[in-house]
Specification:
It is a single chain. By secondary structure, the protein is α+β, with helices and mostly antiparallel strands. It has two domains: 5-81, Arc Repressor Mutant, subunit A; 90-258, Beta-Lactamase, CATH 3.30.450.40. 44% of the residues lie in helices and 17% in strands. It contains ten helices and eight strands. It has a six-stranded antiparallel beta sheet with strand order 5-4-3-8-7-6. It has a two-stranded antiparallel sheet with strand order 1-2. The longest helix has 18 residues, at 11-28. The N and C termini lie far apart (64 Å).
């Protein structure tokens, strides 16, 4: 009989069980359609046997972090939304800057995003959708790579060298044919962004989407958040980027001012 690795006694086992339970929640977070994951799908995605999964799922279900659908599939429960709202209520960036985001979306007629850094990734914390029926798909709480997004590059352009090296060391696989995939290419791009004042995702992270972003600075002078507009390349053309950029930079500057930035 194969022994369940989580059955061994001791504090180390408790830590391993917690990590495995968290991995279940993170995997369920990839469910974009609401249909959830079957036990077999979770077992495959997480390389975890079904008996271990069932044992870890039970307390998550009881605490309402996971719910089981009539189909038998599992998805995130309402408790996650409750914690998420508590977190977002404590983030001044999200709570106090909505008007700036709304103004930017109105000025450009494109989707405006607010993000925070979690290098080597970025995390969307707020958005205002474009009024157009065709627009970029994104979700609050979603993560994207820093190296291939305008928002990530805008912040990296003002980040310490060790942060840039962390992103590079994490890998830079091509997400589209336009993605910058070399350390030299990224460093060169960051130098251009510092000089220009804003960053461009020129179809580097998602096919058919172009974005313009600017860094937000806090009172310490660090940039750990950013603001952007995104849209289909048919509307956000290369020719229109210089037209959109001043609006994005002005929005970033306004939020920076409110955060007490000196620059």
């Amino acid at each position: 009989m194969t022994k369940d690795p989580d059955q061994a006694a001791g504090p180390r086992n408790n830590s391993a069980s917690l990590r495995r339970a968290l991995s279940i929640l993170l995997q369920l977070g990839h469910d974009t359609g609401g249909g959830g994951f079957s036990l077999a799908e979770l077992s495959t995605e997480l390389s975890m046997n079904k008996s271990t999964l069932l044992r870890l799922l039970q307390p998550l279900i009881e605490a309402r972090f996971v719910e089981q659908l009539p189909s038998g599939h599992y998805r995130l429960g309402w408790r996650n939304a409750q914690l998420g709202q508590v977190y977002l209520a404590g983030v001044d960036l999200h709570r106090n800057m909505r008007d700036v985001l709304q103004k930017l979306a109105t000025q450009t007629n494109e989707t405006a995003h607010l993000v925070i850094a979690d290098f080597p990734s970025i995390v969307y914390v707020d958005k205002v959708d474009s009024p157009h029926p065709v627009r970029m798909f994104s979700r609050i709480g979603n993560q994207q790579p820093a190296y291939s997004t305008s928002l990530g590059k805008a912040m990296l352009a003002h980040a310490p060298n060790e942060t840039v090296e962390l992103v590079i060391a994490n890998g830079m696989p091509a997400r589209t044919p336009q993605t910058i995939t070399t350390a030299e290419g990224l460093r060169g791009e960051l130098a251009v962004i510092r000089e220009r004042g804003y960053a461009i995702d020129d179809i580097e992270n998602e096919e058919g989407i172009r974005c313009v972003a600017a860094p937000i600075f806090d009172q310490s002078g660090a940039s750990l958040s950013g603001i952007s507009i995104s849209g289909p390349v048919e509307r956000v053309t290369r020719e229109k980027v210089p037209e959109f950029a001043p609006f994005v930079v002005a929005a970033a500057n306004e939020i920076s001012r409110r955060l007490g930035a000196r620059r």
